[in-house]
Design goal:
Layout: H1 13-23, H2 27-49, H3 80-116, H4 118-133, H5 136-146, H6 152-162, H7 165-178, H8 182-189, H9 194-202, H10 207-230, H11 241-250, H12 259-287
Helix pairs in contact: 1-12, 2-3, 2-12, 3-4, 3-6, 3-7, 3-10, 3-11, 3-12, 4-7, 5-6, 8-9, 10-11, 10-12, 11-12
Length: 294
């Protein structure tokens, strides 16, 4: 995971403006977010702009890309571009649900364990370690195999419930370093409760760290979902980029020379995850003055 600087207490407005100044000038950040934004907009508005059902059979099977079918058609005449835009939407939904759930659980566990310490920290740390040693992919395989009807939302839910431990441990370590700062002591002496101190004193000073953590969780959710889809344990209805790859592999697209069936979804998954990690490196350079390019 990208190395992140020590969190500083309560950034002033001038520091935030400085970070924004370097953000818009960071090539990695702009390129990474730019690629993700283009694919996100295509996934959001593509299904609305291009009418049709992605899994409907067509009359021109195995057609290469053309003016009528931009990404060609499958063995059954299905429009690959139509499947692609619908698959992008499903991929982003899984990333948001899985990454969001994992981020929320990781923040709650990390903040409480790091701030409270003592027996609370020991119990939560033990729970985190138990989840960490469980083979996540094996659990997801078993759960998905026994679910009769699988949806994108359910897939994202299970992914989120299994990939939060590393985030919790990272947030716990940062909270340990902040709970002894003067501004936290002042809030504690003023009578503020644990939840208020975490929400108003500690969390705002870790906002950049939390955002970067969510980016990594989002990318991880996309990769895990694509892996499950590719081995046939994805959603039973609808379409996703991973399911497109699974179908292309199942119906021998590579052997038949139908590159237009598997290249677009594979390139999109790679672009989303790769762009997120590049953007994360850019964010690290923006938030850490020692790494900034002048």
């Amino acid at each position: 995971m990208t190395t992140i600087q020590e969190v500083a207490p309560r950034e002033p407005a001038g520091v935030r403006r400085e970070a924004l100044y370097f953000a818009v000038r960071n090539g990695k950040l702009m390129a990474g977010f730019g690629i993700v934004l283009v694919l996100l907009l295509l996934g959001l508005f593509g299904p609305l702009l291009f009418a049709g059902v992605p899994n409907d059979y067509g009359t021109r099977p195995m057609s290469p890309p053309s003016g009528e079918h931009w990404f060609g058609t499958t063995t059954f005449g299905q429009d690959v571009f139509l499947q692609f835009v619908h698959g992008l939407r499903s991929t982003f939904v899984v990333g948001v649900i899985g990454g969001g759930i994992a981020a929320v659980i990781g923040m709650v566990v990390g903040f409480v364990a790091g701030y409270r310490g003592g027996i609370v920290d020991e119990v939560l740390n033990m729970l985190t370690n138990v989840i960490l040693v469980i083979p996540t992919l094996a659990v997801l395989l078993i759960v998905n195999a026994y679910l009769g009807i699988r949806s994108v939302a359910v897939q994202g839910l299970f992914i989120g419930l299994t990939q939060w431990p590393w985030a919790a441990r990272a947030i716990r370590a940062q909270t340990f370093s902040l709970r002894t700062r003067e501004f936290v002591d002042l809030a504690r002496m003023s009578g503020s409760g644990t939840s208020k101190i975490i929400a108003k004193e500690i969390a705002p000073n870790m906002s950049s760290y939390l955002f970067m953590t969510f980016i990594l969780l989002f990318g991880g959710s996309v990769l895990i979902a694509s892996s499950l889809d590719f081995i046939g344990l994805g959603p039973t209805e609808g379409v996703s980029l991973g399911l497109m790859l699974q179908n292309a592999n199942q119906w021998s697209a590579l052997q038949l020379g139908m590159w237009w069936w598997f290249v677009p979804p594979g390139a999109a998954i790679t672009a989303i995850v790769g762009a997120l990690y590049v953007a994360n490196v850019g964010l690290d350079e923006v938030f850490n003055p020692k790494l900034r390019e002048t």
